[in-house]
Design goal:
14-stranded mixed beta sheet; mainly beta
């Protein structure tokens, strides 16, 4: 009992001592957490050579966030860190940016990588491909061609953008779209969180194991969603064809339009009543364990 008490007191003393050292150290740094990151970062700028024709960009960047913005000419503002190497080249009209990271044992803090971002400026209509393990990608006000993101962990956000097509394929995907327009939107991920506001699309397709999809104030010709554990929420969505399938289906659909126009087909228990519509508009719902509410609003 006496030894146990000694060990408890020793542990508590070490904990207090560690906390005191931490407070003293952070006070010396004026509580600037960025100062804990000892990596050296050098700002860099890239622009194509005169006469060089670039029609697409391909990114392979794991440790920095990327912001894509619209501009008259292509350029890249980025950082070279002393623990990574950046290679930029143009092949067959494609700008290829690749970051190779070196692990540093004694630099556990990477706070500066949060505020230091790659800024890629693209002219209208350019295609973009992102391939890596971790991607944090933000697009603002760009008019893009085909955009493809293949990443194990994808954090993707787009604001007031236009795409010919947008495809996101990964294991964990967190996707936010606000005021965007695209012909096709395809999101495939084991764990998927998709939030879309003011989206205009001809075709939307989502597929995954755990899927959480929220769409609001949007117009889509066709929406197809499939998952094992699915949570779908639509609010003021105009859609001509809706297909939703899941083993465990939890959904709230508030659709714009006249409900009598839709043919409703269901497969499973506790689903809305079936009906034959007056037009070719169609809703198909399928699930094993279901909690689904469907309503139409003006």
């Amino acid at each position: 009992m006496k030894k146990t008490k000694i060990w408890v007191l020793t542990g508590a003393s070490l904990l207090i001592l560690g906390a005191l050292v931490w407070v003293i150290a952070m006070s010396a740094l004026k509580w600037d957490f960025y100062a804990l990151d000892t990596t050296e970062y050098t700002p860099m700028h890239y622009a194509p050579q005169e006469g060089e024709q670039i029609t697409a960009a391909e990114l392979d960047i794991d440790s920095f966030s990327v912001v894509v913005q619209s501009g008259e000419t292509l350029s890249l503002d980025y950082y070279e860190a002393d623990d990574s190497e950046v290679e930029i080249k143009v092949e067959d009209g494609i700008l290829k940016v690749h970051e190779t990271r070196e692990f540093k044992l004694f630099n556990m803090y990477e706070f500066k990588r949060i505020k230091y971002k790659y800024v890629l400026t693209l002219p209208d209509g350019m295609a973009l491909s992102v391939k890596n393990t971790n991607s944090t990608l933000e697009l603002r006000g760009v008019d893009m061609g085909t955009v493809v993101v293949r990443s194990a962990n994808a954090d993707f956000a787009a604001y007031n953008c236009k795409f010919e097509s947008l495809t996101i394929d990964g294991t964990n995907a967190d996707v936010k779209l606000d005021g965007c327009e695209t012909e096709t939107l395809s999101v495939y991920s084991t764990n998927l969180d998709l939030s879309a506001v003011r989206l205009t699309a001809a075709s939307v397709e989502t597929r995954g194991t755990n899927t959480d999809v929220s769409i609001c104030d949007s117009t889509c010709d066709t929406i197809t969603m499939q998952g094992t554990n699915a949570d779908y929420e639509f609010e003021r969505v105009r859609v001509d064809s809706l297909f939703a399938k899941a083993t465990n289906l939890d959904a709230e659909f508030a659709l714009l339009g006249d409900g009598a126009e839709y043919t409703i087909e269901t497969h499973g228990r506790d689903l809305p009543k079936t009906q034959v519509g007056t037009t070719d508009k169609k809703i198909v719902l399928s699930g094993t364990n279901n909690s689904v509410h469907l309503r139409f609003v003006a």
